[in-house]
Amino acid sequence: MYYIVHTTLGVRPVTRLVLLGLLARRPMSGYEIQQYLQLVRIDQWSSILPGSIYHALKKMAAEGLVEVRATEQTGFRTRVIYAITPAGRDEYRRLLREAWRTPPRSLPSDFYLTLGFVDDLPREEVVAALDEQIARLEERLRAWNEGEAAKAKGTPLPEYVRAAFANGREHMEADLRFLRYLREVLPRTPAQPWQVPPMDENPGPHGAFAKDQEEDSHERPD
Q1: Could you tell me where the beta strands, DSSP code E, fall in 99-211?
Q2: Strands (DSSP E) along the chain, which ranges?
Q3: Residue 207, Cα to own-chain centre: how many angstroms?
Q4: Both 24 and 94 in a single domain?
């Protein structure tokens, strides 16, 4: 009998998904996984850090999602070979189903939220931050296009992979247009200070309920 551990404490779901997906194909060592992730430029596709996989493997082993299949001694280095468990396969499928139900680009975005507080920093500091972000995104777009060209040199890319590259490129180009627009407009836009208006402490049934909830949250003597 086995069970699935749904907690993701300490290991991000996307990291679990990728590691379990690789181990579902064959047992691998952490070093092999790290080399493969660097080969496919995983940093372009997600926020996974190749250096974090050793911690993730140990964490998932403790949860019963993967197991140590063997250890290999190569010189002064010991390689631990991990294999996916039945519970790990169930967790992998759960994460995969969840990922397919998640939009590739979701809203709301925290960046849009910061626009409401743009006047709380010196305008030149905001512009400098935009310049940095534009430069990073331009470099990422360049690497994205180079990655697509490099992959296309081998076997022809499946249509859905080409669509993924196109979708990512369109998102980055749209972000660049928006950031460049802000970079142009903000320096000549006067500050518009605003304040939070007074809140009615008892606006009606909902306000009374909120007040009761707040009072109930305090500890009461026995």
Answers
A1: none
A2: 28-29, 66-74, 77-84
A3: 37
A4: yes
Say what the pLDDT of residue 203 is.
59
Chain segment 160-181, per-residue pLDDT in tens: 999 999 999 999 999 999 999 9
What is the token pair recorded at 171? Answer: 């998102």
Q: Mark whether 29 and 55 lie in a shared domain.
A: yes
**Same domain as 94, residue 114:** no
Three-state SS at 112: helix
For 61-107, the pLDDT digits (tens) are 999 999 999 998 878 888 899 999 999 999 999 998 988 777 777 66
Sign of CA dihedral 98, 99, 100, 104: positive
28-29 β-sheet, strand order: 28-29, 77-84, 66-74
Cβ atoms of 117 and 46 closer than 8 Å: no
Q: Which of 74, 100, 126 is the last residue of a domain?
A: 100
Burial of 60 from C-beta contacts in 10 A (0-12 / 13-18 / 19+): buried
